Every structure is written in C-alpha cells, then in structure tokens.
Amino acid sequence: MLAHAKIESVRKIESLFLPGLAGRLEALLEEPEDMAPTEAALVCHPHPQHGGTMHNKVVYRIARGLRGTGAVVLRFNYRGVNLSEGSYDEGEGELDDARVALDYLRARYPALPFTVAGFSFGSRIALRLGCGVARRVIAVGFPAAYKERAGLDTCITPRVFIQSTHDQFGSVEQIESIVAALPEPKQLHFIEAQDHFFTGALEALEAVFKRLD
C-alpha cells in the first residue's frame, strides 16, 4: 500500500545581509504560507548580551503568530550577534540596526501597512522605533521593572502589550500601572506562563496574535 505524501504550502524564506551602520546585519525574511502578505512586520530580539538572537523561541513565536495573520515578517540580529558585524552599543546602535531593518522592509513592501514588534529588550527598541510611524507597536515581555520608559509617555501610536503573568522583569502590577497611565489607544494581554520567557505557554502566546486589532 502506497503512502500518500503530504503536500505542504511553499512559503518564501530568505536569508539576507543588510548594510548596517556598523557592518552587515544578518536577517531572515518570511512571507505567510497561504496568502499574499497584507501587512509587513519587523520583530526585534531580546538583549544581545544575555543570549538574545533572532532565533530566540519567543521571537520565533511572535514571528509565526504574525505570519498567521497575513504578515510578511523580518527578523534580524543586532550588531555583534551571530553573523552580524560590529559590537554592542548600549541600545543606541541596536536602535540604528532596527531602523536599517525597518527601512529595508518598508522599501521592499511599500504598499503594506507595517507593525514593529519586539520581545524584552527588543520591546523597548520596538517602541522607540515604531512610535509615530508604525500602524501599531507590539511589546512582548516589556521589562517594566526598569525605569527607562522607551518614550512611552508621549507615544500615541496604537500599542499592544503582551505579558506573562509571572514575568520576573515586569510583574502584573507593574505593567498594569504603566499601561493604565498611558494615553489611548492601547491594549494589554496577559498570558498565563511560568516566567519572562513564556515557559509552558508558547502556543498561547502565538495564538494571541489572532485576537489583536
């Protein structure tokens, strides 16, 4: 008896090198599987000095969740991470790297609205970059315990916060207090998870993107 081979949809995946200000930046572009892209999304990874890369499991789930809603997604490595050239620059150089990646994405898909998203340190980069220009900014695991607010107080771009209920860098009380004080429009979604990295709840994290505006 012959087994029937499963035919899967083919989606576009491209490994890229972008011309960053400190040298080339390693990046990965992925289009949705079953549809033409309806949105473009940049996803920023967590802190490069604490093991953060574009292949972080939370970043991967964010990207896959966005693709499931029709977005073409660009992930990239900050300077000094894996094959990206340069060295860590206290968040300022990393913001420049994200801007280079966003400029590339917008030039490649000029007709599409765009979202900027990020996890942890990357959520702060995303807020600084996306406020005032993006359709929305998605901040996953925003490190609310730190004093630096990433320009939140003056941002009126739609902001979506997605937080673990047991995030050691941003408790429920801390993130609720910050979001409550922000101007509209804004959303706050909690995922019942074990820690900052959404341990035990990565599927739930990915699924939440289908419920976002």
Helices, strands, pairings?
Blueprint: E1 13-20, E2 23-30, E3 39-44, H1 57-67, E4 71-76, H2 92-108, E5 114-119, H3 121-130, E6 136-140, E7 159-164, H4 172-180, E8 186-191, H5 202-208
Parallel strand pairs: 3-4, 3-5, 5-6, 6-7, 7-8
Antiparallel strand pairs: 1-2, 2-4
Helix pairs in contact: 1-5, 2-3
CATH superfamily: Alpha/Beta hydrolase fold, catalytic domain
Number of strand elements: 8
Number of domain modules: 1
Class by helix and strand content?
alpha/beta
Written description of the protein model:
With 213 residues, the chain is of the alpha/beta class. The protein has helices at residues 57-67, 92-108, 121-130, 172-180, 202-208, and strands at residues 13-20, 23-30, 39-44, 71-76, 114-119, 136-140, 159-164, 186-191. An eight-stranded mixed β-sheet has the order 1-2-4-3-5-6-7-8, sandwiched between helices. It is globular and about 40 Å long.
Question: Which features characterize this protein?
Answer:
eight-stranded mixed β-sheet, 213 residues, globular, Rossmann fold, disordered N terminus, alpha/beta, 25% helix
Write a short abstract of this structure.
The chain is α/β, with parallel strands linked by helices and 213 residues long. The protein contains five helices and eight strands.
